[in-house]
Design a protein that fits this description.
mainly alpha, two-stranded antiparallel sheet, 6% strand, globular
Length: 72
């Protein structure tokens, strides 16, 4: 998978519904460069959603929610 540099700027500018969707495996391969987190964090954020595809913006939102979640 080749993630283009413009996708990083789209992450900040907001993405449209027609943006490319990626498997979790593809996103994990680029977790540090796209989201500044290790692939383990991405795995935790997406626990239980292995068979779905996500845009870069959706993944970023899910990771932020995971990182801000309150731990009991």
């Amino acid at each position: 998978m080749t993630l283009k540099n413009h996708e990083k700027s789209l992450l900040n500018a907001g993405q449209e519904a027609s943006d490319p969707r990626y498997t979790l495996e593809e996103l994990k391969e680029h977790a540090e460069s796209l989201f500044s987190v290790k692939e383990e964090v991405l795995a935790g954020a997406f626990f239980g959603t292995q068979d779905k595809q996500f845009t870069v913006a959706e993944a970023h939102t899910k990771i932020e929610q995971f990182m801000k979640a309150k731990v009991d």
